[in-house]
Write a structure and sequence with these properties.
The chain is 50% helix and 2% strand. The protein has 237 residues and is mostly helical. The protein folds into 2 domains: 155 residues, 3-Layer(aba) Sandwich (D-Maltodextrin-Binding Protein, domain 2), CATH 3.40.190.10; 53 residues, no CATH class. Strands 1-2 form a two-stranded parallel ribbon.
Length: 237
């Protein structure tokens, strides 16, 4: 199931496919906008071509670019489609709608270890200009403490520290905890690709819509994304 009207959902699907053929270090380099990477590679071309092949084989709905994200996951919860590539932000809604019929897993192991797009929440930091650095540090310590992780677990949120020590209230929650723990242990987390530049979310989202609509070839798609990435890296030395 993919509803790509809002453009960003296909970024997650492409990232999942990309991680099957592209080494995690290369994805991290691109996702973090680091110098020295390139989108125009055989591995990324293969990933883009895979999405086109899925379109040709009917793996996505015919209205993939005209279907919204919410209607897509809601249709999935009612039995449409076999898989939904999404994040843990849908855990509560899908769990409520599907109960024991829902399972959360890492992407299949096409490589030695599974690679999964993910993050660890809001990147809190203490500014060098803050007037109360000790208070800011104390707050960060509080929200990342063992007690805080326990509260997150009890409320069906993902505790990103001491995950293995936590017990989820539901089966789907435990699936999420287990999958995250595996990804961390295997060093298999890769960043969201739209992290790369200030404009990458718009660029990549629009380019993927064109790719899925077959208005752009895999090569044209990658050249578009490479320009955004390359211009940003060049400006930042």
């Amino acid at each position: 199931m993919l509803g790509n009207l809002d453009k960003w959902p296909a970024i997650h699907v492409f990232g999942t496919v990309q991680a099957q053929t592209t080494p995690a270090d290369q994805i991290r380099q691109l996702g973090f906008g680091q110098k020295g990477g390139s989108w125009v590679t055989p591995e990324n071309t293969q990933a883009a071509q895979t999405l086109v092949d899925w379109v040709d084989k009917g793996y996505f709905g015919k209205d993939v670019n005209g279907l919204g994200y919410d209607p897509a996951w809601q249709a999935f919860s009612k039995g449409t489609g076999a898989y939904l590539i999404a994040g843990t932000w849908l855990q509560a809604d899908l769990g409520k709608a599907m109960g024991d019929d829902l399972t959360f897993v890492l992407p299949p192991k096409a490589q030695q270890t599974p690679a999964a797009t993910g993050g660890t929440g809001i990147p809190w930091a203490v500014s060098s200009r803050t007037k109360n650095p000790d208070a800011a540090a104390a707050y960060i310590d509080f929200i990342t403490s063992k007690d805080a992780m326990g509260v997150l677990a009890k409320t069906e949120n993902l505790p990103v520290a001491d995950t293995a020590d936590q017990k989820a209230p539901s089966a789907i929650g435990q699936d999420v905890f287990t999958a995250f723990g595996t990804a961390v242990d295997d060093d298999a987390l890769v960043p969201y690709l739209d992290y790369a530049t200030p404009t990458m979310a718009d660029t990549l989202g629009a380019a993927l819509q064109d790719l899925l609509a077959k208005k752009a070839t895999p090569e044209q798609f990658l050249q578009t994304v490479q320009k955004d990435y390359g211009d940003f890296v060049a400006q930042n030395g």
